[in-house]
Automatic annotation (TrEMBL):
Comp. bias regions, Basic residues: 224-238
GO molecular function: phosphoprotein phosphatase activity
Family per similarity comment: Belongs to the POA1 family.
Pfam families noted in UniProt: Macro
Enzyme class: hydrolase
Name used for this protein in its record: ADP-ribose 1''-phosphate phosphatase
Region (Disordered), start-end ranges: 1-39, 215-245
Organism field: Orbilia ellipsospora
Record function comment: Highly specific phosphatase involved in the metabolism of ADP-ribose 1''-phosphate (Appr1p) which is produced as a consequence of tRNA splicing.
Length: 245
């Protein structure tokens, strides 16, 4: 009986000690970020609506929406757009036909989004969201101000489509507009955050950092030489003519 009493007292003391240990709040903003790093990425910056991470966007969970900015003439020929074309050839064909067949005037696509459902022959069950932010590319790319204005309209359209269609997967993006379109990432990020505050209904966008094609990529806040260069698991992006970011 005496031994049982001692054991009971020890248990009571342990429970009392545990209750005094403060529990650390690892997500004070209340954002659900479970599963965003299934591809092995490392979260580097958790804002209220845009979360930066090191990793490979193509390793996002099945059913996710992968977002990138596109031109309106049907070309995924360089930068991360070329990687999208190589990874999702059937989705590329849908995009190409949308630009060249369904719309005779490319400029009519500006500020809109083509949301491509998972294609049977493409891997991972990913949705592909094409934000039309510049009519053309290269020397004929639109100005940053025009691109940012179209980005807002296109992203708002994406959020509406996702709600209407009932897409359950998370939103995952590269640093749209910051590569071949030459727009400072910090400005695009602000545009996305503004849209999410107004139209996001609690959604967040996971944005992936990687060693960008031209070297010395921009940081998550738009400056040169992003944090953790070389640490990310993003793939090397192929070179080619024409493209998006």
């Amino acid at each position: 009986m005496e031994n049982q009493t001692r054991r009971q007292r020890a248990q009571d003391d342990a429970q009392s000690t545990e209750s005094e240990v403060p529990i650390k709040d690892t997500n004070p903003s209340g954002i659900n970020i479970d599963g965003i790093n299934d591809g092995g990425g490392e979260v580097v910056d958790g804002g209220e609506s845009v979360i930066m991470t090191f990793g490979d966007i193509f390793s996002a969970p099945a059913g996710s929406v992968l977002i990138h900015a596109c031109n309106c003439v049907g070309s995924w020929g360089a930068g991360i757009a070329l990687a999208f074309k190589q990874k999702y050839p059937a989705a590329y064909q849908v995009y190409h036909n949308h630009c060249t067949t369904a719309h005779s005037d490319p400029s009519s696509l500006l500020g809109t989004t083509l949301l491509i459902p998972p294609q049977e022959s493409d891997p991972d069950g990913h949705w592909i969201a094409c934000l039309f932010t510049s009519e053309r590319y290269g020397k004929r790319v639109d100005s940053p101000e025009m691109i940012l204005r179209r980005t807002k309209g296109a992203f708002e359209g994406l959020l509406e489509q996702v709600r209407r269609v009932g897409v359950d997967g998370g939103l995952h993006a590269c640093k749209i507009n910051s590569g071949r379109f030459g727009v400072d990432w910090g400005r695009t990020r602000e545009a996305l955050e503004e849209c999410l505050r107004v139209e996001g209904a609690g959604r967040v966008v996971v944005v992936y950092e990687f060693e960008e094609e031209l070297g010395g990529g921009q940081s998550s806040r738009g400056g040169r030489g992003g944090r953790g260069r070389g640490r990310g698991r993003g793939r090397v992006i192929g070179r080619g003519r024409g493209g998006t970011t």
